[in-house]
Design a protein that fits this description.
CATH topology: Glycosyltransferase
Structural class: mainly alpha
Strand content: under 5%
Shape: globular
Distance between the termini: 24 Å
Order of helices and strands: HEHHHHEHHHHEEHEEEHHEHH
Strand order of the largest sheet: 1-2
Oligomer: single chain
Number of domains: 1
Amino acid sequence: MHDTLVDASISLIRNNQHASGAYIASPSFPTYAYCWLRDGAYIAHAMDLYGEHESAKAFFRWVNATISSNRVGAERSLRIVEGAEPEGLGRHIQSVEQVRQSLRARWTLDGRRDDSEWPNYQPDGYGAWLWGLDEHIERTGDLGLWEESRETVEYVVECISKVWSAPSSDCWEEYPDRVHTSTLICMAGGLERIGRRAHDGRALSLAGAIKEYILCHGVFDGRLAKFCNHERHGDQWPPKRCAHAGPSIGDSVDASLLWAAVPYGVLDLADPRMVGTAMAIDRGLARGGGVRRYAADTYYGGGQWLLLTAWLGWYYCRTGEMGKALACLRWVENEAAEDCCLPEQVSRDLVDPVLYQPWVACWGPPANPLLWSHAMYLILRRELDDRAREV
């Protein structure tokens, strides 16, 4: 079953890549009939790990074409924000919003704007894309793709520099009025990787500033927090906060905070703040082998996500806890259907079971298959196989 699931995952991804190069998030869940830069970056990385380099390259070329063909209005906005084109205050605020909207999280498979009702400003995807592009070039030596991508990269770095500390929806398309620690992690990690490749001091300086912001505003009780708090400085909180109050949802842990260590390296694996974050995720969000997004999750009642379980396993591989990593892999494999499809989440031991049926009535059952789930399974499986060969 295990080798079959690897082969099936690769085939599923290959067969659901559009002729444009875009990866559909889920071929059977109409709401996910788009390509997210975030999902796509990890799907492309998984394909690279298994030698499917042309598939990954096609995705990265699709990103270049899509951003290039949708950037006209935003270019003028950047000039207005920088003061090159004077505008009234109201128009200036609108222009900043236009810059934010240019960093769309998802696009149609043929590279057009998606104007559906789901939140579409999630800049973590652009950090993931920068990281994934550099990973692909590092693995393949495809300097031709790098030359093709340089102008797009410079444009995205410029956009990020204008809005990185502004509120946005997170990677779960929620809380658009907050600044999310994992979003900043993605941007910092992507900027650092691409800055080194381009020898771009501005990108590297920006990555450093975002890291500093995370450590100043995104740390609570010795670990990373779900949201950044502008009143926070490290672990110091304002005196008005009740000393006996439990953590708010903003102070709580989110499984996406694993990204700080793997793959972005914003915190070292041995950093006490990273260790504390991983422990909080393991103790608070890992139930019955699977990992939830966060403790107050209500999407489809708050189930266990396969891609996050694989991510926790990826983290354990890097920390040398191979037994725990293997347990995560086996849990994911056991959730595969007879046709080897991996869903987005499973509906056992929900955070709020009452909310499951309303979601089903509105949108249908949870996405199955989800290409991002298959990608994270492939990444974890390759990491474990590589570690086994080292022994």
